[in-house]
Amino acid sequence: MSNMTREVEKPHPVVELDEIDRRILFLLSDDPRVSQRQLARAVGMSPPAVGERIARLERQQVIRGYTTVVDWSALGYPGLVYIPMTLATDADLGEILTELRSISELTELVVVTGSFDMIARFRIRDHAHLQALLLDRIWPIRGLQRIETFLSLGEVIRERAVRELLEGSVDDAADDVEDHSGDDAA
To answer: DSSP assignment of 74-126, as one string?
Structure first.
């Protein structure tokens, strides 16, 4: 497990964001295809100024990419399975990770604390697909000491979007702007 420190993504330093940065992130998380002109109107800036802010947020890796949210069922992968794993003490971590990364159904792999070392999340078509995945791809991986299988019965709360996390801070910042907007008139 000591080799795991090389594999785990390190946290980035906190980036100071002002109200406009938060509002831009909020709007982009709502619609990543929104134009800079529309963003500029929404935040009260020029399109080039908004473009510069977006470029800065990308350089600082606050914005790491733009994505498409797909309906996995429509793609033929309605099943979701979580597989926590414990590694043997003499396991070759590099080999295990190479094997796991080669499985196209793997959508996430995280290192965890507790009685397991990692939890993998896979998208599957059906029971037969899960059976083949386990028997042909996962169980043969040398160095996996123990695994369990947790089938998802359905999502209750999807992964929170940036929009939801920023919603409170954007609303608070807008309130602050409104509260101070009358200060000049006094």
So the answer is: TTT--EEEEEEEEE-TT--HHHHHHHHHT-TTEEEEEE-SSS-SEEEEEEESS
